[in-house]
Design brief:
Layout lengths: L12 E2 L15 H8 L1 H11 L4 H8 L3 H8 L7 H10 L4 H5 L20 E2 L5 E5 L9 E8 L15 E8 L2 E5 L2 E5 L4 E5 L4 E4 L6 E8 L3
Antiparallel strand pairs: 1-2, 3-4, 4-10, 5-8, 5-10, 6-7, 6-9
Length: about 220
């Protein structure tokens, strides 16, 4: 994952199946226009809930405060890259900002192995296969994460709303949570609140494989 605040912590925006111009279409259908117009208010609400100033969110997301302000006021439609950064800093998947979030009365999601979608993340060296249902219907997000040797969350500790639970199936993962170091091997688990400064890396010589769960804050 590229060194900004997107990681499995904020996982779970499914990668698009085809490349395209992003969400900045000149001619949008009414439905798409409605979804795009809702991005700004969602960003502002989450920022307020996290008690972050524009400048604080700018520092975490590596997006300028002026740009975030324009997005919140619906004066600017963010590119996919910008939305990835802001979503990661706020602890939400990109899908939260672009899905209509229709909620079923009895949400149930069955995901066979062959249908586990790849999850979009900005970090490098990690592959995420989604194992949970659509964001609008569930608060819990999860993936089977494969982390190559040396991959990490970057030099700057992550901080965002929510919780994470990691269960290692193969290899090793090292976490630093609020200054404490945890080295997880096969069968080890770590559960923590993500408002604490935290970071992760694979210190081993082999791929690490883990079930990585994230509680999406409401």
């Amino acid at each position: 994952m590229e060194n900004h605040r997107l990681g499995p912590c904020t996982m779970l925006a499914h990668a698009p199946t085809t490349a395209g111009p992003g969400i900045e279409e000149t001619h949008m259908t009414d439905d798409v226009s409605t979804i795009v117009s809702a991005i700004g208010p969602k960003v502002r609400r989450l920022r307020k809930e996290a008690r972050l100033s524009l400048q604080q969110l700018a520092e975490i997301s590596q997006v300028s405060a002026a740009a975030i302000h324009k997005i919140e006021q619906s004066g600017m439609t963010p590119t996919i890259t910008t939305l990835l950064k802001v979503a990661g800093a706020l602890g939400r998947p990109v899908s939260y900002f672009v899905d209509e979030e229709e909620v079923s009365s009895d949400p149930t999601a069955y995901t066979p192995e062959a249908e586990q979608s790849r999850i979009l993340t900005s970090h490098t060296g990690i592959d995420l296969a989604g194992i949970t249902g659509a964001y609008g219907r569930f608060l819990l997000a999860g993936a089977r994460a494969t982390v190559v040797p040396g991959a990490s969350s970057g030099d700057t500790p992550l901080e965002h709303p929510g919780e994470e639970l990691v269960y290692v199936l193969e290899g090793q993962l090292e976490f630093v949570v609020n200054g404490r170091v945890f080295v997880l091997g096969h069968g080890d688990a770590l559960h923590f609140r993500t408002v604490q400064p935290h970071a992760w890396r694979n210190p081993g010589k082999n791929d690490a494989v883990a079930l990585w769960m994230a509680l999406r804050p409401q």
